[in-house]
Design a protein that fits this description.
Elements: H1 2-113, H2 122-191, H3 193-198, H4 200-212, H5 216-223, H6 233-236, E1 245-249, E2 264-268, E3 273-275, E4 280-287, E5 293-298, E6 303-313, E7 320-321, E8 326-330, E9 336-343, E10 346-348
Antiparallel strand pairs: 1-2, 2-9, 3-8, 4-5, 4-7, 5-6, 6-8, 6-9, 9-10
Helix pairs in contact: 1-2
């Protein structure tokens, strides 16, 4: 009996040790599997971040190409329109000249076909001859003018043909570059899907802020700005405007309503591409009364930029964008951006940051 108890004790001890070793092996295997999964996940995150970074850089290049081509094509189209106007003006002048030349020629032909050398009519004939002499000189001038106009018209036609050829040459290139830009924008949108789902609560908060804010300045102050830092590069370096165009109202000038402007008004092409003026984070991307669709970005060293009258927006809240990355397009029906720069609670003259085209 005693031997049986000893045997059973040894069996239980051995089984317990074997079971413990087996459990430990399972735990170790699970830890190893988890470590591998974490490693794979980290690699996926790094790969995703690299892809996003690559997409952003490609977008900056594509946006610059598309915006430049749009500018070139707009300039060519404008030149063609100006040449058409010149052509029409000269054509109208030539029609008038033809009438004057016809009248002068008819007068000369009439006198030449009705000569009269009677003494009684000599004085009248001499006077008529003098008038016809002047008419002949005028006819000669009109013919020379007409010849010059024909030359000018030929030059205009040649110049128009050149501009039209250049415009046609860029059409295919523009179409391809535009397709590439649209494809990259779709890629970026897909990459930002996670960001989209995470910020629904923030979007609601900003919509509430938009409803309460009475002015664009209040809206900008409400979204906050980046913290002040030692990095003053944004203050020293001149940036490109977020949209290609011409400044028509400057900081401090009176607006149509007689108020002092806290920013610039930039006249643009309809549907012009809008790009981020500097690296930063999107703090507001929605409609705001009287200003169309608005994008507010926060940049280094406490600066915010406010861009208005967009027709569509291609970025979302809290999205980080690079300088030159496309963020939307202007409203074709209101191609004038109001651009405001703020630092803290104060409006800053955009001339400190932006270079005019």
């Amino acid at each position: 009996m005693r031997l049986l108890i000893i045997f059973l004790s040894l069996f239980v001890s051995f089984t317990h040790v074997s079971f413990g070793a087996s459990e430990l092996s399972k735990i170790k295997a699970e830890i190893k599997q988890t470590e591998q999964q974490n490693k794979q996940l980290a690699e996926k995150v790094q790969s995703s971040e690299r892809e996003i970074s690559k997409t952003k850089k490609e977008l900056v290049k594509a946006a610059d190409k598309v915006s430049s081509l749009e500018d070139q094509r707009a300039a060519m189209a404008k030149k063609i329109a100006e040449l058409d106007a010149q052509r029409d003006k000269i054509s109208r002048e030539m029609e008038k000249n033809q009438g004057r030349i016809s009248d002068a020629a008819s007068s000369i032909l009439f006198v030449a076909s009705h000569p009269n050398f009677d003494t009684d009519n000599m004085r009248e004939y001499v006077l008529m001859s003098a008038v016809m002499s002047g008419t002949a000189q005028l006819l000669d001038e009109e013919i020379n003018r007409a010849a010059q106009q024909v030359k000018e018209l030929e030059k205009i036609r040649d110049a128009r043909a050149i501009e039209k050829e250049k415009l046609d040459r860029t059409a295919k290139k523009y179409t391809n570059e535009k397709k590439e830009l649209d494809k990259l924008l779709k890629t970026r949108s897909a990459q930002n899907e996670k960001l989209r789902s995470e910020h629904s609560a923030l979007q609601k908060k900003l919509r509430d802020l938009s409803a309460r804010a009475k002015s664009i300045s209040e809206l900008s102050a409400g979204v906050g700005s980046s913290q002040m830092s030692e990095d003053s590069r944004l203050s020293r370096r001149k940036l490109n405007l977020p949209v290609r165009g011409r400044v028509v109202v400057r900081f401090g000038e009176k607006t149509a309503l007689g108020l002092k402007s806290d920013g610039w008004r930039v006249r643009t092409r309809g549907d012009a591409l809008v790009m981020a003026p500097a690296d930063g984070v999107v703090k507001f991307a929605d409609s705001f009364r009287g200003f169309g669709k608005v994008v507010i970005m926060s940049h280094k060293n406490g600066y915010n930029t406010v861009m208005t009258n967009l027709g569509n927006i291609d970025v979302m809240l809290e999205q980080e964008v690079l300088a030159g990355e496309p963020i939307g397009r202007m409203n074709p029906d209101k191609p004038e951006m109001y651009l405001e720069v703020r630092r803290g609670n104060s409006a800053v003259d955009p001339a400190r940051l932006f270079k005019e085209e």
